[in-house]
Amino acid sequence: MERLTVECRAKYEHLFPAEVKAEQGKKYFWCGCGKSPTQPLCDTVESFGDNALLYIADLTEDVCFCNCKQTKNPPFCDGSHAKVLTEVVKNRKKNETKRTS
Ligand code: FES
Predict the structure, then answer these.
(1) Hey, which of 13, 19, 31, 66 would you mutate to test ligand 1's pocket, going by the most ligand atoms within 8 Å of its Cβ?
(2) E strand or H helix at 19
(3) Are 63 and 76 within 8 A, CB to CB?
């Protein structure tokens, strides 16, 4: 299987989980729509919509929030991004093949 280069990873950063240093007792609003410029979290109180999810940290620890918005266990990454990335790599390979033929 083809691997993503560093440049390619930067391009698809939104498809990788985001590690956030959460502080015990602090509230975090996970963005479920993907439109917030401060991913993986909502940017402003006004923008908290139906897709925002409240997470209150039990502990001070690194939390792996979903960034791809495909998780079945929001707001946490459950590995679903791997399927999306596999499709991206397949499509890249298909497009490169078309260009060279
Ligand atoms: S980033 Fe891992 S499931 Fe979305």
Answers:
(1) 66
(2) strand 18-22
(3) yes
